[in-house]
Fold:
Amino acid sequence: MGKNVKDEVRILVGVDGSTNSKRALVEAVSCAKTFSGFVKVIMVYKRGMAEKAEEVLEEAKQYLEEKGVKYSTSAILGSNPARALQTTAEHENFDFIVVGSRGWGSKASILLGSVSRQVVANAECNVLVVKK
Structure:
């Protein structure tokens, strides 16, 4: 008679400390509360930026705890946030990915496209891009 409804919606959100990534986290939490979901927050950082990554994730943890949402966090050393989001979503069976429309991306993102565009184009699950 139709699909079984999952007990828990699994939501992956990428953060980088930017305003738009904070908006993405807020939207992910809203979805998690609406659909009894679990949120995993990841931050992809470059060498020498581990401390900044931990600060960003600590802020996210405080927000998630304040909102009473089940969550986990992960800091990933790497240079391709879009690929990290896609790989994590696929390997850990996430239902959808939430990203901000523009983060702190490098100048190269002008040539290569933003993280959100790459995720939308290549992810195997649904993607929610938060603009405001």
In short: The chain has one domain: 10-130. The mean pLDDT is 87. Residues 21 and 91 are 22 Å apart (CA to CA). Residues 10-130 form a domain with the Rossmann fold fold (CATH 3.40.50.620).
